[in-house]
Records
---
Amino acid sequence: MGRVEAIARSIVQLIVKGAKKRSRSPIAWIIALISTIFSFYQLPLHRHRPKVFQDLRERHWGLDEDDYVASFRTEDGQKAEDALQPMGDMGFSGSTFYSTVDKKFLIKSVPRHHEHTFFRDELLDAYAAHVAAHPKSLLVRICDFLASSGLAIGHQLGMAPSHHIIMTNILYGSDEAKRMGMPEWEQWDLKPTSYFYPERDIAEGRLTSEATKSQLADEFHDKLLLTQEQAEDFWRSLDEDTRMLAHYNAVDYSLFLVRIQPNAPAQQVTDPSSSSSPPPAVEAITPRDPPAVPPAPPSWRTGVPSVGGKYVYRAAVLDFFWAKHKMQPRIMTFLVNAYNKLIAHHGPMSITTTPDEYRERFLKLCHEIVEIRDEQESEEV
């Protein structure tokens, strides 16, 4: 079994079967312990703070436990790892990324120590309280946090990621939309681009491959066409979310934006409706099952129609695990400050700036991509 499959198997087995109980037989216990120690990729995992996440799933997001587990089950005759589809792997020390077969959930590893310890020890309770109290929060909905005990060799050598988050998939429904003949859904991972990015800014990017530079933040060269009410609701949620993140010293988070063209058949754009109400095709691609709801549609999780109905937008705030006070970020801040003082002044990186300054630029970006239109206005093709 390969590395990607072994990691997937460990995740699925935990969600479907739960943590294994230790046998009372001393021999069986010793065999199990040896097997655990010599695990390279299929690390033994446990759910961290399971009651917290179960409360979010069931009480606040309306997700029944059986329905949640069903996304990780396989058909008869299939292997456990078949329940997850790999979406990316960055090598033995990097991240892994999976989706459930039904596309409702994404599983992303959090391999860096300073990130998973920040979420586990400092942010988790604040995150849970915030999303519970703010149903319209754009912070991605994290449904589970899985961790390894650290006994396995694979954990100690970094051969497999030791921590994973299970989160909702904002692209849920894109496969069905494609089968309906709709164009590919457009997506952007947005951060303020005015910061110093060594891959882009040193020697005009000639020292770095295009593949590496492609991993930098996207730019959205258009506008979200929203009513005044939609825009204010969008900005209010972002203001509340980023205030909480800044309080806990988080920086470098991003706005994941999805734009859907529900009325246009593939390879062809039809005239948009002049009505501000969602066109019939919007209903077909709007998820109405938990945890996308509550709140009821329209929301930034299910889809907000643009003025005129040409587009439907979804958005979520992702990757808020980088905290300025942790050791690795402090080292990076020192190195960037030294570079700016001794070599060339480029200013801070998005991972070395202050939380308040990053929040200010992030909110400025989120205001700049919005254009407010009257509800009766139609969009131009």
---
Amino acid sequence: MSASLQEQLQNCLLLQRAAYHADPVPTLAQRRQDLLTLQRFIRDHKEALCEAISADYGHRSRHETLLAEIFPAIDGIDQVLKHLKRWMRPQRRAVDLRNFLGASNRVIPQPLGVVGVIVPWNFPVNLSLVPLTFIFAAGNRAMVKMSENSRHLAKLLIERMPAYFPPEKLQFFDESGGVGIEFSKLPFDHLLFTGSGQTGRAVMAAAAQNLCPVTLELGGKAPAVLCADFPLRLAAERIMFVKCLNAGQICTTVDHLWMPADRVEAFVGAAREIVAARYPALSSADYTAIIDERSFDRLLNALDEAQAGGARLIPLLPGPAFERATRKINPHIVLNAPAGSQLAEREIFGPILPIRTYAKLEEVVTAINAGPRPLALYPFSYDKPTVQMLLDRVMSGGVSVNDALFHVGQHDLPFGGVGESGMGHYHGREGFDTFSKLRPVFYQARFSSLKFLMPPYGKFADRVLAFLTR
């Protein structure tokens, strides 16, 4: 990274911090205006955003961008606007009345200052503008670093966002080599990173030098568990929708599926019918490309490795297994992926669904708990005790019961990982709280009973303390 860009990063932070000190607690009206301005930007550039993302992918389904990025960002702002006044109110807290008659306690949510956001390539509008919704709602300013795989989108944001927000409020940065690590070294008041666990560790280590608090949204091998009582066709419809969405390049997609062995062939048959009906050919405009050559080769190598180890590869669309020219990979189900293979050990992040079988649910619980805690868990069962058992015994960042992915899109639910899948939350009230300092304030009364409990201590103090500690 050039010295000029490093200086630009530092100067932007100084500019935003000075603006924060000049106006540390924006009013409700100011925050509402920021949110409405952000929403107006999205609406004004809806088609341009879709086109930029598609250019970055090679091909990205316009409908997927509208469904998974544009709509959540616009609708999320509407939801925050409904609650913002209530979220900003000081919270009353109880006072120890034995000692402080007439005193009061408040928790006052106040802006942290300047928040850094490091955005991945897979949902770059959603994962930049949705966090900004909560950052602005909490009264902060923001610096946002885009991915190296989002060059067209970053160019659009860098060029057009200044007409909506001044640099002392919001500024975007492209990844031109080495920017990410320097960005994470800046002394932000909070840093949000979404991406891989490996990069997340590096970001957290850099932020630790400034004791900068971080929210890490990472990934992992999110399992779906299909129980014997759940309708197989319905499960296949729902699971294959999220597995093919964005060609499986989603941190909260179904990474792999657990199911009873005697239902596997029926599931495969249903999946073939469903996927072929949704995407008649690999060239379908509704089917998204793999983001880059490196990711494309990684996924093909993982399939080859699994097949060499004895796995059965089942492409779900007629025609070729992949098209290198368009970087599209035929959705696959993989049976009997060998232990230790990439498909078994690494987050897949592509349109490949390994199926693992079980005789008893206890086997599933033991296997999932033997690995890192996943970002999501997807139990499919209408039996409430079974679902509750899985909720109790398998920890994950979030859960969708009898579907997959949709807990992420619920505006009033917090989103975040646990353990190796991340830390901290945003979305909903928790998003506002994450980017606020929940500041405790004690207001002393005109008269304080502590005046009788100050040195020199005497018999009266002995009697009072004996009463209080009885």
---
Amino acid sequence: MTQSSSGQTKAARIATTSNALDLSALSLIAVTGKPDARRAILRHRNGRTETVRPGTSAAGGTVTAIDAGSVTLSMDGKPLRLALPA
């Protein structure tokens, strides 16, 4: 299975699992791409989704890192790590 299809499979599982996400908070719903070109899909509290990459401004912060299962944002100079639901 490729990295991209693995991310799509995990996103589909999360999207169809009851209570997998806290809908009242910013959530990570998918990570796609090769390690040197990762993208992450965030779900905002209002239901809007956004695809981000390192350096992107999102949710009042800046995406500083994306790995296979998480994204880190710098929020007011402090790191905020969002992980995919288990």
---
Amino acid sequence: MRFLLEVGMDDGALAKDPAGELGRILRYWGGNLHHYPMKAGDGSEVYDSEYRGVGRWRIEQGGGDEPEGAS
């Protein structure tokens, strides 16, 4: 399985303070994961400090160790 996190950083709070916002998102969602069974198909939208949807995390059934697009 793979845990994937995608966050758009082009505007809003992430454009103003990318390191601070990304750190906040990682801390919040890292602490929130215990609410999920952590199996393929789990996931949720990710919000910035302005409560705007900026991305998504998900768990997929993976076939290998390399992320998609890596070669």
